[in-house]
Amino acid sequence: MSKIIVLKCVGHNPKDFELDKVVAVQFGLIKDLFHGDFDAESKIVVDVPVKFNSYIIGRIIEFCRNRASWSSDRAYWEQDFFHPCREPNQRKRKELIAIMEASEYLCMESLVELTTQSLANYLKGKSPLTIRSLWKVEGDLTAEEEAKALAMGVAKLGH
Amino acid sequence: MSVLDLPDLALDLILELLPPSGLSSMAKVCSSLRERCVSDHLWEKHLITKWGKVLGPAAHRDWRCYISSSCHLDSPNNRIGHHPLGFDKIISLIRSISSGDEKRKRYAASSLPLDSTMSFYLSLETGRFWFPAQVYNRENGHVGFMLSCYDAELSYDTHTDTFQARYAPHGRKAVAVEKGVTWERLRAAPIDISPHHLHVSDSLNELKPGDHIEIQWRRNKAFPYGWWYGVVGHLESCDGNLNHCHCHLNEMVVLEFNQYTVGSRWRRTMINKRDHREEGNEEEGFYGGIRKLSCKEEIAMWTRLWPSSILE
Questions:
Q1: Does residue A120 share a domain with residue A153?
Q2: How far apart (Å, rounded) are the C-alpha atoms in residues B311 and B298?
Q3: Range(s) of the domain holding residue A44
Q4: Inter-chain contact B28–A128, Cβ cutoff 8 Å?
Q5: pTM of the predicted model, to two decimals?
């Protein structure tokens, strides 16, 4: 019997996720815990902090399984996974941010890079006013600064 | 959820991935984001990526002088055209922050000093700051300057992604100005020295036939030097067979400028390695310091610029 790895999520909708080896190796945190040895017989339970709910952990595991499967529609699936712009609601963006935070905790460097790049791509080319509206940020610039900001218009791509 | 609810590290990771235009937009969203978006570490990467190859020590020195002097303050003579990304407006904003008014108090902990990397980047980008560098084949490939590199002051034009160059005057002649200088014709000066100063050669004894060199040359002593590309040749007494060539042991070294036709007075000159400083006359000009080229990229650059036909 090889190692059994369980990710234990508490809090709202508690759930245990049993990971097979091809998925578990993608978690840097787990890899560090076992020093890369996934073949020794044992059962390990990893407690996930309560702020990372089971839905988000489930999405991360789904990503890892898709990565491991090398299926032909993987590129299409990942494009959908990382697309942050599900307007009008912000659910998808909130999900991406939660995945980014969880993958940073779980030491999954590639997933951190992919999620931050998706969020950065979403911000690119947007005016300050659009960003404020979409991200619900209150502008606290002075009237003079506000007027200058409005006068700038939408930025074109530079060289 | 507000973007500010992101953990600091997460927000920083996102900001690090934004291009300058994105950082500029984010800096205008709110005061908290501005504080983050103007930090040096975010702009250093962009400065090096876009400007690193053309900014040498002289450019950084000139920038420090520029921001410490009063000549850069907003004035009718100093205005530049509208920048598509609004960078010129940001420059005004930066100066108003630093001018000691009410806003300065609010931004006291995060005020953007003029010597910030962002300020440097934007000043280059808007063409407001003219920086020193060198231009290959100046004045649109003028035949009189082919395969040379001259010092100039450059100002960037973001609309065309090219530069305007102002060359140091040659005596009483008007300052030569060239527009449309492309990035590939620019370099930071490889030796940090004024174009009016003689470079003291330090590799003369190592020169051997086949070596690639650059040599300072000027028409007369009132003109600035340019750097001219050449190759070390064989002495006339040598048949060019490398198996028994002793040219490198001779105190005289032959420099060839093969872009000129055979028989041209510009094609070949000889330098005495012993205590070489500057040699020449009013007819053939003055040959100054020599630097041996070891970097393949530098040599390849000169090869790319080789004229399509031999020069007379």
A1: no
A2: 22
A3: 3-124
A4: yes
A5: 0.79
Residue of A104, A119, A156 lying closest to B84 (CB–CB) = A156
Helices (H), chain B: 8-16, 20-27, 31-37, 40-51, 57-68, 87-98, 102-106, 117-125, 138-141, 296-304
Same domain, A137 and A113: no
* CB-based burial label for B248 (10 Å; 0-12, 13-18, 19+): middle
Tokens representing B201 are 């050669």
Question: Could you tell me how many CB contacts below 8 A there are between chain A and chain B?
Answer: 103
A87 plus A153 within the same structural domain: no
Inspect the interface and report whether the beta carbons of A137 and B14 lie closer than 8 Å: no
Interchain CB distance below 8 Å, B84 and A139: no
CB A85: neighbour CB atoms within 10 A?
A: 11
Question: Into how many domains does chain A fold?
Answer: 2
Instruction: Using an 8 Å CB-CB cutoff, list chain B residues near A153.
Output: 86
Q: Which residue has the tokens 């953007």?
A: B112
CATH number of domain containing A43: 3.30.710.10
* Binary contact (B3, A116; C-beta < 8 A): no
Cβ of A153 within 8 Å of Cβ of B93? The answer is: no
DSSP structure class, residue A136: T
Reading chain B (312 residues) residue by residue, the pLDDT tens digits are 456 567 787 888 899 999 999 998 898 888 888 888 989 999 999 999 999 999 999 999 999 999 888 544 443 334 344 555 555 555 555 555 444 444 443 343 334 567 789 989 999 999 999 999 999 999 888 888 889 999 999 999 999 999 999 998 877 777 889 999 999 999 999 999 999 999 999 888 889 999 999 999 999 888 999 999 999 999 888 887 878 888 888 889 999 998 888 888 888 999 988 888 888 888 889 999 999 999 999 999 999 988 877 766
A chain contacts of residue B84, beta-carbon cutoff 8 Å: 155-156, 158
CA angle, B256 then B260 then B264, to 5°: 90
Q: Are residues A151 and A88 in the same domain?
A: no
Please list every residue in chain A whose beta carbon sits closer than 8 Å to the beta carbon of residue B22. 120, 123-125
User: Is residue A50 located within the same domain as residue A118?
Assistant: yes
Q: Does residue A112 sit in the same domain as residue A68? A: yes
User: How far is the alpha carbon of A149 from chain B, nearest alpha carbon, in Å?
Assistant: 6
Alpha-carbon span B126 to A154, nearest angstrom: 17
Same domain for A141 and A66: no
Q: Which of B1, B13, B20 sits opposite A116 (nearest CB)?
A: B13
Q: Is A147 on the interface with B (CB under 8 A)?
A: no
